[in-house]
Specification:
single chain, 5-stranded antiparallel β-sheet, Beta-lactamase, alpha+beta
């Protein structure tokens, strides 16, 4: 909305799962295959724990995340690598500047080029390298779909989603990317919630260290701070997943890939589940500016009926 007019509309799909995994709400086409993008990182982390990854919870949180390149994030990535006896030279993700504006400016002011350790997926890649070390696999070519690590991740991902993978691509960071339905993605997150086992360590780490999953002021971090027990993960091209401590899960895919549309829809769905913590108010709409002033908002078009 800009000055009272509807300027743009985003369409998409949404699925809400109940405690028992039953679909409470399905909008759009949640059965259509999508690429989960970075929402797959917590799932990959759970699989890597099963493969022998052993790091403290704060390092596990950054392995689950898409960090913004703050010094605390970079230090955590370096710590994962050091834990495995490796360095940033072993990373093979795509070089980039930090997502955080201040951190990006600070790095540019030093004259540094984009690098791998500041790129938002470096925690995930550091965990991949550490997993290879503990499993006795070569870290060379760890992104190759035929590498034992990626073969194991694919098998584990397919098992968690409860549905076969029908296609493969390359993610922005260079890692193999497998498609899954939005429903399968939501089901995968439900498999992270039960108490006990390696899987439970992932949500526990994310809840304890939300600032390492994305960054202060970022939606995934602020959603986790706002709702006790909730885990949240964003993905490129308009993908978002949140799961409550009791297993209720919301997964969203925006058709045109607009990330700005995700969080207002997620908050609307949470409210319709009876979740209305005070901290959600600031996330329910996003401001639209005109000449430096707020003149409108991005909002969910209507209440989501259950």
């Amino acid at each position: 909305m800009r000055s009272g007019f509807v300027e743009s509309r985003h369409t998409g799909s949404l699925v809400v799962l109940g405690v028992a995994g039953d679909p409470r709400l399905e909008l759009g086409d949640p059965g259509r295959a999508i690429f989960p993008r970075s929402t797959n990182k917590p799932l990959q982390a759970a699989i890597m724990l099963e493969l022998g990854l052993d790091v403290p919870d704060h390092l596990l949180a950054v392995a689950c995340g898409s960090h913004t390149g703050l010094p605390t994030h970079v230090a955590a990535v370096r710590a994962i690598l050091a834990h495995a006896g490796r360095t940033v030279a072993d990373l093979d993700n795509t070089p980039a500047y930090p997502l955080d504006d201040d951190a990006c400016r600070a790095l540019i002011m030093t004259g540094a080029a984009p690098d791998r350790v500041h790129q938002n997926c470096s925690g995930n890649h550091a965990a991949m390298i550490a997993t290879c070390v503990v499993a006795g696999w070569s870290t060379s070519g760890y992104l190759d779909p035929a590498h034992p690590l990626q073969v194991a991740i694919r098998a584990g991902y397919e098992s968690m989603a409860g549905t076969p993978i029908s296609g493969r691509a390359i993610d922005g960071c260079g890692a193999p990317l497998y498609n899954v339905s939005l429903l399968g993605l939501a089901q995968s997150y439900q498999n992270l919630i039960p108490q006990g086992g390696h899987e439970h360590r992932v949500p526990a780490a994310m809840r304890a260290h939300p600032e390492l999953v994305e960054g202060p002021g970022r939606p995934a971090t602020e959603l986790m701070r706002a709702v006790p027990g909730l885990i949240a993960k964003n993905g490129a091209e308009g993908v978002y997943v949140v799961a409550l401590a009791d297993g209720r899960t919301i997964a969203v895919k925006i058709d045109d890939g607009a990330a700005r549309a995700c969080v207002p829809v997620v908050v609307a769905a949470l409210r319709n589940l009876g979740i209305d913590e005070p901290g959600l108010e600031q996330l329910s709409t996003l401001p639209i500016f005109g000449h430096g002033q707020v003149v409108g908002e991005i909002r969910a078009a209507a209440a989501l009926a259950f």
